[in-house]
Amino acid sequence: MRFPIPSLIIAIALSFAASASLADEEEMAAFQAIEITKKTDVRFPGTMRAIGVKEGRVSLVASIDTQGKILDTFVLESTRHAFTKSALKSLSEWEFTPALCDGQPIDSSIRIDLSFQVDRKLAWQTFQAPGPADVTRTQSDERPVTTARFGELDAIPFPIEIVEPTAPVEGVATIEFYIDELGHVRCPRITAGSSLAFGQTLLEAVSQWKFEPPVSEGNRTNTMVRQSFSFKDGKLSSVAPL
User: Fold this and answer.
1) Is-contact 167 231, C-beta < 8 A?
2) How far is CA 224 from CA 83, 96, 123, in A?
3) Residue 108: pLDDT band by 50, 70, 90 thresholds?
4) What digits encode the pLDDT tens for the residues 75-93?
5) For residues 232 and 227, what is the distance between their CA atoms, to the nearest angstrom?
6) pLDDT tens digits, one per residue of 181-207
7) DSSP secondary structure string, 169-197?
8) Beta-carbon count within 10 A of 234 CB
9) Which CATH superfamily is domain 5-239 in?
10) b (16+ CB within 10 A) / e for 143-165
11) Residue 49 in contact with residue 219, Cβ under 8 Å?
């Protein structure tokens, strides 16, 4: 079932506004973040060393399923494609423990920031939620992948295909997801919610959404949306963040 387009535009806009929340009436489920259980070394690219490049960085989000396997990777920022390739090659060998909701594994995502310096040990950090850089490009050429905030987009991305939750499960939840430069949803995750059942059905619905490509300064880009939703009496609506 398609969700009314004007309502979703309002929902995205409300992610930065205060409004009455249904969350106060709900008992929130307990969430536990993804854990990295094994990581391999990320090598400084030899091609970069050869041309005198001494440092670089890559920020990415990895979507992890209930078995701890990587479902998707989404590059947020990269100074050069060679660093991206090195990071992704190593990441494919990492192992993860999935996120939990009330003790049950769920699909989720984790942000990983990598800082490369020639002849130095790799510095890295992880974040369980996307950081303040909300927009990124995904081109794989030698142009740097850069980030910009949602509010810096030329216009709110217009939804062209929205699927409502189909399971008869009511509740509230906060969800984060990226819209890539083709308008597809990438790496959605639940950050808070009233139940595991509702979180799963909302993730399944949101993963099928599609938007017009986000645009910043006239160029296609990617953006991150963070929004809380309520599903009650068969209607999906936005609420204040949980």
Assistant:
1) no
2) 23, 23, 25
3) very high
4) 888 889 999 999 999 999 9
5) 16
6) 888 999 999 888 888 888 888 888 889
7) --EEEEEEEEE-TTSBEEEEEEEEES-HH
8) 10
9) TonB (3.30.2420.10)
10) eebebbebeebeebbebeebbbb
11) no
